[in-house]
Design brief:
The chain has 356 residues and is mainly α. 78% of the residues lie in helices and 0% in strands. It is built from 20 helices and no strands. The chain has helices at residues 3-7, 12-28, 38-57, 63-78, 85-92, 94-103, 109-114, 120-140, 145-158, 160-167, 174-202, 206-216, 220-230, 232-246, 249-263, 269-272, 275-288, 297-318, 321-326, 330-353.
């Protein structure tokens, strides 16, 4: 019975009073209409587009990093409220997962094989150093588990892409992702500036420098910048090594997902193997089978970068600067220690395996 139907059985003097009370009570217990996701998603796309353009102008920094920085700056000005939150959430989660799938089209499995068995000990060794170092040093520095995991995979695998993938399978906040991205970005720039100089001082060959850059520099754009600055042969080999290293996203994400499922006492396969990782593998298989025309590769690569920029814009727009300041300087110190450990261990493993 609705409020109006209740009022039919009362005399006119009481009807108005009862109708008013019952209408208020009725409205109080009705579910509130959820805000539409389109405004927040549109804002994230707009900021992501601007970030992508800036990333093309300054490729060393890249669109994803510009995305999170611009998102934070825009949020400080307009202060997005509850109406924008649903769309920003979609941008930072579903769009992020879509970006990882699109990036799979750029990874051909024969390229992994061509990287050569000789480079695998160095890649796997630096992976273990970064992940183990993040766990041990992060605990000593009393850094929360989510932040140290993101810093570990970002340093070990492929920077922004790895952070984006792992943030979709573990419990982390926007602040954790922002801090990890900022830290990885800082040492990407340092690597681009310092690695070619150090490589010449050490006297590394083109092959050795390409392997060093491919295993010790985080984001692909930074590997390209540093390795090609050293020489064309170093650049070509560094990119192949970096693509091979990126493949480590899959087992790491599956392992973290299984661990989370066990902790939550839920083990359905959809929780253990996220669907976006399945999509990543399917995309890589399609590329390996030669079903993607070569003329599409550049466009798919740009689409992947754009989607990550949109996702990180959504994260930046959701951030509260006060919470970011509360994180302190310890994660930055952890990032610095991991960066040095991986750079040194890569050279040490090359020397041990005879590839230096």
């Amino acid at each position: 019975m609705t409020p109006c139907e209740i009022g039919v059985y009362l005399d006119p003097s009481a009807r108005a009073s009862v109708n008013t009370v019952t209408e208020r009570t009725w409205a109080r217990y009705q579910p509130a209409e959820a805000p539409a996701p389109l405004p927040g998603l549109a804002l994230a796309v707009l900021v992501g587009a601007a970030a992508t353009l800036l990333g093309r102008l300054v490729p060393i920094i890249g669109g994803p990093v510009f995305g999170i920085v611009l998102g934070i700056l825009v949020a400080a000005v307009i202060k997005p409220g509850a109406k924008l939150r649903p769309g920003l959430t979609i941008a930072s989660r579903q769009v992020l997962q879509m970006a990882i799938v699109v990036l799979g089209f750029g990874l051909s499995l024969p390229a992994v094989v061509r990287a050569g068995a000789a480079s695998l000990p160095v890649m796997l060794g630096t992976l273990l150093v970064a992940l183990g170092g993040a766990f041990v040093l992060g605990r000593l520095l009393r850094i929360p588990g989510g932040v140290r995991t993101l810093l570990g995979v970002g340093t070990a695998i492929c920077g922004a892409s790895a952070i984006a993938a792992v943030s979709a399978v573990i419990d982390v906040t926007e602040v954790d992702v922002a801090y990890a991205m900022g830290t990885i970005f800082t040492f990407n720039i340092a690597a681009v500036l310092l690695f070619p100089v150090l490589g010449h001082l050490i006297g590394l060959s083109q092959h050795s420098f390409g392997l060093w850059a491919g295993t010790a520099i985080n984001d692909t754009s930074s590997v390209v910048a540093a390795a090609y600055a050293y020489g064309p042969a170093a650049g070509a080999y560094g990119v192949v090594v970096k693509l091979t290293r990126s493949l480590m996203i899959i087992p790491v994400c599956i392992g973290l997902s299984v661990r989370r499922s066990r902790q939550q006492r839920t083990l359905p396969w959809r929780r253990m193997i996220p669907l976006f990782l399945v999509g990543f593998l399917v995309a890589s298989a399609i590329e390996t089978a030669g079903l993607i025309p070569p003329s599409w590769h550049a466009g798919l690569g740009d689409a992947g970068v754009f989607l990550i920029a949109v996702a990180l814009s959504g994260i930046g727009l959701s951030l509260e600067p006060a919470k970011l300041r509360q994180a302190g300087a310890r994660p930055l110190l952890l990032g610095a220690l991991l960066w040095v450990l991986v750079a040194v261990s890569s050279l040490a493993l090359q020397a041990a395996t005879g590839t230096l």
